[in-house]
Amino acid sequence: MAPSIERAMLIFKASVLLFLTGCSSSRGADGGEGGDRITALPGQPKVPFQQFSGYVTVNPAAGRALFYWLTEAYGNAISKPLVVWLNGGPGCSSVAYGASEEIGPFRINKTATGLYLNKFSWNTAANLLFLETPAGVGFSYSNHSSDLLDTGDRRTAEDSLEFLVRWLDRFPRYKGREMYLTGESYAGHYVPQLARQIMAYNLKSKHPINLKGIMVGNAVTDNYYDNLGTVTYWWSHAMISDRTYGQLINTCDFRRQKESDECESLYSYAMDQEFGNIDQYNIYAPPCNSSDGAGSIASTRQGMRLPHRPRKVNFRRISGYDPCTERYAETYYNRPDVQTALHANTTRIPYKWTACSEVLNRNWNDTEVSILPIYRELIAKGLRVWVFSGDVDSVVPVTATRYALAQLKLVTKIAWYPWYVKKQVGGWTEVYEGLTFATVRGAGHEVPLFKPRAALQLFRSFLRGDPLPKS
Ligand SMILES: *[C@@H]1O[C@H](CO)[C@@H](O)[C@H](O)[C@H]1NC(C)=O
Ligand SMILES: *[C@@H]1O[C@H](CO)[C@@H](O)[C@H](O)[C@H]1NC(C)=O
Ligand SMILES: *[C@@H]1O[C@H](CO)[C@@H](O)[C@H](O)[C@H]1NC(C)=O
Ligand SMILES: *[C@@H]1O[C@H](CO)[C@@H](O)[C@H](O)[C@H]1NC(C)=O
Ligand SMILES: *[C@@H]1O[C@H](CO)[C@@H](O)[C@H](O)[C@H]1NC(C)=O
């Protein structure tokens, strides 16, 4: 265990006692947070922070309820901000990815019988609220099953706001607390959209949500620039031929939601004939055997977290990190004892918990073509906005993000420089008026999975509102 965590635990032990004695009387028995308290998860090491999880009804008429898991901060949680983390898909779970393989305090072990600590967990710096959104993702459900067939960006933002408002009623000690929204991939839509929804809510509410900023990674941002930047990344990283690149540029209309058959067949050619056996989410990671039994989950993973166009890919496994964590998650979170400990699946949801919902993904109803107008609004309102990018991801690559952000025509405040973590270049960054952009060198699509130490550095700098370290 890292010395820093041990220290944090010692400090926190004292504050747990203070907290329990100080606040035990305010714990409501009914509808309060008390019922959501997690005693311990099966196979969980002892930890000095508190955890809560459960459901918040966001639409009583339809019977939609969203599931959350709060892991409070190591040490002095009461004085630390609340950070919401969302994964993308659309249709993927923040419990599966964010909590269990990226920024959360626990990792699931190989036999899915126990948990071990992630020493670079972001709850060393903040209280983390993992939300499975929209209904149909993970444990979040709707009693109106047709909801799963017409959910899109709009309902996701509305329900997520409803969730936050009602959740804060259940956890009054978080009211007025500094809040940040973070996430990756298709959460490049969710996070800014929810921020916009919160700003609109704040205008007419007596109890405004104290939203301070947002941070997104490898974020789906703008159809046209994302698509252009993606094929350009493929070409500039020598994954495709000059000829295929030229044909893609000349044939595809990157503004369209659905491409022509001619364009689709060029994509297929690039991926099937030219890419070879690589992981699109981390192009330099060596591929692993396809015979490791992770088949179905791996193919879900490849298909599901793509921005717009479901791309046909044979599933690939990679090493350098444990590639099977999604499989452990699907075993672990389907265990009845785990669900009981989490207060999850209390209504006997008629299908299994999965890391991503194919039904939601396939039937996604509405998607904004560009998130850039929302960035302009949020920047104008003075929110802290950070955008980061793992630079070996070819799914929502760094070129896509740079093309998109360039359209904002922001004024440079601190010119491009390498930032450091443990005396190594962690990536590069440029600070603009209103927005900070940072790359994470050698990180794939899920930045905190591939580069946990660098990701934690990024998170700490973001929370402080300081530029990344120059040495
Ligand atoms: C969904 O239906 C179940 C079973 O009738 C009920 O217990 C539950 O409260 C409903 N959920 C919501 C959010 O209304
Ligand atoms: C997983 O965790 C359980 C519970 O702590 C433990 O008994 C088991 O040996 C661990 N398995 C592996 C492969 O680490
Ligand atoms: C791939 O599979 C072969 C045969 O099953 C095995 O010998 C080899 O160790 C595997 N490689 C990896 C990287 O898992
Ligand atoms: C919910 O629990 C039922 C058993 O009561 C189980 O069959 C189902 O797979 C579970 N669903 C989820 C999403 O956990
Ligand atoms: C589906 O999308 C259309 C427009 O794209 C929108 O008008 C409608 O409200 C959406 N439906 C839901 C349930 O959000």
Alpha-beta content class: alpha/beta
Number of helices: 15
Q: Which shape, going by the Cα principal axes?
A: globular
CATH architecture of the largest domain: 3-Layer(aba) Sandwich
DSSP strand tally: 15
At the fourth level of CATH, the homologous superfamily of the largest domain is Alpha/Beta hydrolase fold, catalytic domain
Number of domains: 2
Biggest sheet features = 11 strands, mixed
CATH class of the largest domain: Alpha Beta
Reading the helices and strands in chain order gives: HEEEHEEEEHEHEHHHEHEHHHHEHEEEHH
Radius of gyration: 21 Å
Cα-to-Cα separation, first versus last residue: 26 Å
The set of bound ligands, ions and cofactors reads:
2-acetamido-2-deoxy-beta-D-glucopyranose
Return the CATH topology of the largest domain.
Rossmann fold
GO biological process, one term: proteolysis
Enzyme class: hydrolase
Family: Belongs to the peptidase S10 family.
Subcellular location: Secreted
What's the short story on this structure?
With 471 residues, the chain is α/β, with parallel strands linked by helices.
Structure explained in plain terms:
By secondary structure, the protein is α/β, with parallel strands linked by helices. It folds into 2 domains: 1-222 and 325-471, Rossmann fold; 223-324, Alpha/Beta hydrolase fold, catalytic domain (Rossmann fold). It is built from 15 helices and 15 strands. Strands 1, 2, 3, 6, 7, 8, 9, 12, 13, 14 and 15 form an 11-stranded mixed β-sheet that branches. Helix 4 (187-204) crosses helix 12 (372-380), helix 5 (223-236) runs antiparallel to helix 6 and helix 6 runs antiparallel to helix 7. Residues 1-30 and 288-320 have low confidence and may be disordered. The chain binds 2-acetamido-2-deoxy-beta-D-glucopyranose (NAG) (5 copies). One of its GO terms (biological process) is proteolysis.
